[in-house]
Amino acid sequence: MASKDRRSPLARARGLGSARGGVNHWWAERVSAIALVPLTLWFLGSIIAHAGSDYAAFIGWLKTPLASISMVLLLLALFHHTALGLQVVIEDYVHSSAKFGAVIMVRLGCIALASAGITAVLRIAFSW
Amino acid sequence: MDPKPPISDMTVARPRPLSPNIQIYRPQLTSVLSIANRITGVMLSLGAVGLVIWLTAAAMGPRVYGEVHAVIASWGGRIILFGFTFAFFMHLCGGIRHLVWDTVHGFELRWIYISGWAVVVGSIALTWVTWTVSLLLAG
Amino acid sequence: MIIESSNQVPRVTLLKRFPVPRNFKVTPQSRIEKGRKWAAPAGASRTKTFEIYRYDPESEANPRIDLFEVDLDDCGPMVLDALIWIKNKVDSTLAFRRSCREGVCGSCAMNMDGTNWLACTRFISDMSKTATIYPLANLPIIKDLVPDTTHLFAQYEMIEPWLHAETPTPEKERLQSPQERSNLDGYYECILCFCCTSGCPSHWWNGDRFLGPAALLQAWRWLADSRDEAKEERLDTLEDPFRLYRCHTILNCTRTCPKGLNPGKAIAEIKKMVIEREA
Fold first, then answer.
1. Which of left, alpha, beta for B104 (phi over 0: left; psi -120 to 50: alpha)?
2. CA-CA distance, B112 to B121, in Å (whole number)?
């Protein structure tokens, strides 16, 4: 036992006190989840419908306004939900100082990946 | 008169052992489906990375897209894709179950268990349907 | 396969324990070693073997598992009866808490065959062939099956389980309609046995900051009480990423409550109330 904890049980339970927040994270996770239900099903259905299509047909579909907008929305909702979900997982299992670094990396990584994905969709929609 | 020290004060000869938790606690539908929802969620995070790779390849032209497509269509790629499909449906059905709970419905044990088995059966059934339809359409 | 109430003992076992190493994340002083075997007295015809967690704080030894053969014709039908029989007839050093022997005090809460329940309301005939008895999960052990619940009670104290009212005490009673009183049903009956909190994986990993189902159920009991005037302060205390939001609706709590209460539902109600004051 490196450092002796001489706090009373109540002090130990109270810790640093209530953050008086946290509902925004919980709510955003639910809202992004609700958005993801139709978006992912649409994506899955589209992929199945285009199973066996060649590159030109696939790009032709992805260029359409409906497909490109839906894909952008999918990427936004997906990476928002992923960032929130992974943050909770890290907070649950990582208790060392590495926790903050890990959460930051996950958040920034999701922003970067979402940007890359949206850029790809827009490039397809506008240039081909 | 001095108050008695708390019983968990470290005045005993050595720190108290901790009773076992996950080492002995019985896995139940509740805990198993919960960790499955988490594991599938993490798997889908990796799938999201794959989605971005795939979209970037599509934006880079038919040659790059062809290379990526070849990897996906390989036997290893198909097995991974099958796993992802199952993970997707399990997380989707589990997620909907969670959203229903957030409206404070379905908390009676009976409904917890019925909805839980529905998630398991639904995930397997939807995966099977998806792959059957895809393989038929792809020829 | 469909469980209708928490006192249903599962008939089918697909997985006896999670596939983790036997001593996963176990500190050296918590490692369980093999103990001794205590044979049944001569002449016992119907016996059952009980594997019981033992720990002696006055020795240098680690916790161990002792095997006891219990004469079922000589003791009552409940697991608590078997423990009392062992203490009377075989090993008087076996330590465990008990009081009412009828499932209302919460003293004899322990882990039997992998799930938390009260020993006095668990039938021996519902236990598996070799019954395993551990203390409540994830708690410091004082001796044998006696856990140290100081931290759990501190978390309970933190939610201030008493009536907060600035309105001066009326002459007779604080009025409450039958409908308002019914909002407390399913929450006031908690006996603070801590089976639920001790069985919550989120509390295992974050129990220092996550309040756990028992404290949160009682927090809801006071939030749901129409006579209480401190909803704002109570919700401020609870709204925290760890205190409240470590609950991921795993629902081991509702599955294991020996009084048939629903902590998972209570926590969902708290989360709903937090949202309602935001929007």
1. left
2. 14
Query: How many residues can be counted in chain C?
Result: 279
Same domain for C135 and C193:
no
Contact partners, residue B105, CB within 8 Å, separation at least 6: none
Class of domain A25-127: mainly alpha
**Chain A to chain B, count of Cβ pairs less than 8 Å apart?**
80
Residue numbers of B between 10 and 49 with CB closer than 8 Å to A: 10, 15, 38, 41-42, 44-45, 48-49
B60-112: pLDDT as tens digits: 999 999 999 999 989 999 999 999 999 999 999 999 999 999 999 999 999 99
Q: B36 CB contacts (<8 Å, ≥6 apart)?
A: B90, B94
- ipTM entry: 0.94
Report yes or no: C215 and C149 within 8 Å, Cβ to Cβ.
Answer: no
Report the DSSP pairing between strands C146-147 and C33-38. Answer: unpaired
Give chain A as a DSSP string. Answer: --S-----HHHHHHTT---S--HHHHHHHHHHHHHHHHHHHHHHHHHHHTTT--HHHHHHHHHSHHHHHHHHHHHHHHHHHHHHHHHHHHHHH--STHHHHHHHHHHHHHHHHHHHHHHHHHHHHHH-
* Residue pair C85/C71 in contact by the 8 Å Cβ criterion: yes
Angle between helices A98-127 and A55-63 (to 10 degrees): 100
Q: What is the CATH number of the domain that holds C241?
A: 1.10.1060.10
Model confidence over A24-51: pLDDT tens digits?
Answer: 999 999 999 999 999 999 999 999 998 8
| C48 and C114 belong to one structural domain | yes
C113 touching chain B per CB within 8 A:
yes
Whole-structure pTM value: 0.94
Kind and range of the H or E element at C254? helix C252-256
Q: Which of B30, B32, B99, B93 lies closest to C262, judged by CA?
A: B30
Q: How many Å from the N-terminal Cα to the C-terminal Cα in chain B?
A: 87
Domains of chain B, start order = 34-138 (1.20.1300.10)
CA distance A12 to C245: 19
DSSP structure class, residue C8: P
Residue of B nearest to A55 (CA): B62
